[in-house]
Design a protein that fits this description.
Layout: E1 7-12, H1 15-26, E2 29-33, E3 37-41, E4 49-54, E5 67-69, H2 74-83, E6 87-88, E7 99-102, E8 108-111
Parallel strand pairs: 1-4, 5-8
Antiparallel strand pairs: 2-3, 3-4, 6-7, 7-8
Length: 117
């Protein structure tokens, strides 16, 4: 038996707006868009993707899943994402090597330091 990781589902009150925000932030392409779903991928034929699915209300509890990203330059990437509309979040992480950010619908994600060579 084999499994292929297809995508991560993100619940959203506005799938197209949030999905486009992430597509722009990641430099990914839109592969599907409807009133209730918006899917992006690194390239049209490359998996996994992110699919934004409409929900009626914004999340009220802490998510049990978040994304981590490892850029070449953490400081520059955090600045770029904040300029793009992300915001820094203090979840009690203290002094860590990663930065916690939230997207426009308050989904948390982390920007890690560059991996040691």
């Amino acid at each position: 038996m084999t499994l292929e990781w297809e995508q991560v589902i993100v619940h959203s009150v506005d799938p197209a707006a949030l999905g486009q925000w992430w597509a722009d932030a990641l430099g990914w392409v839109v592969v599907h868009s409807s009133d209730d779903e918006f899917e992006i991928r690194p390239a049209p034929d490359r998996l996994p993707g992110l699919e934004f699915v409409r929900v009626d209300e914004a999340g009220k509890a802490k998510s049990r899943l978040h994304l981590d990203f490892r850029p070449d330059d953490q400081k520059a990437e955090v600045a770029r994402l904040v300029a793009h509309g992300a915001r820094r979040v203090d979840i009690g992480q203290g002094e860590r090597s990663w930065v916690v950010l939230a997207d426009p619908e308050d989904n948390l994600f982390c920007v890690l330091q560059r991996r040691p060579q």
